[in-house]
Design brief:
two-stranded antiparallel sheet, mainly alpha, single chain, 2% strand
Amino acid sequence: MAAPAHAPYAAWMSGYCDIAPGHPVHGPYHDTEYGFPQREECVLFERLLLEINQAGLSWETILRKRSGFRAAYDGFDVDTVAAYGEADRARLLGDASIIRNRLKVDAAIHNAQVIQGLRDSHGGFVEWLDAHASENGAPRDKVSWVKLFKNTFRFTGGEITGEFLMSLGYLPGAHRPDCPAMRDIAKAKRG
């Protein structure tokens, strides 16, 4: 769901808040997931995998293929995906229900292995995110997040990292301040 290169995130996202509500594909994602905090490893991995696969495509394409991704990647189970071998790569590259791109498939497997390592170093993926959410006493900015992600994961450039973090509330801009989803996000953060 990358913003046009010339548009600041907040300005572009206000447009998403205008078009997504009521849309059969974007609406449910906008209203109940985008910008909402998530803590479950498989949900975080799914979001990262979907954002990586969106590169070069529309977010609607990815949302329409979401169930295909879920089936192809074993429900986004990190341990299962981390153990994929050549037969699994071949299966994924032949699966028309997902995006068949070798670099993206390889990134999914590699990133699942990285997430396994984050369990040992930080307690898990969400704990790693939380541990890096601030820098020098202030919320970490996008540039710093992108550098961290590029040094940690594969296929995580600026747009992918920015969207991933915005979709989870680690970066601002998922919704305009007056969007009704903001009330639900505030409730989710409280408890």
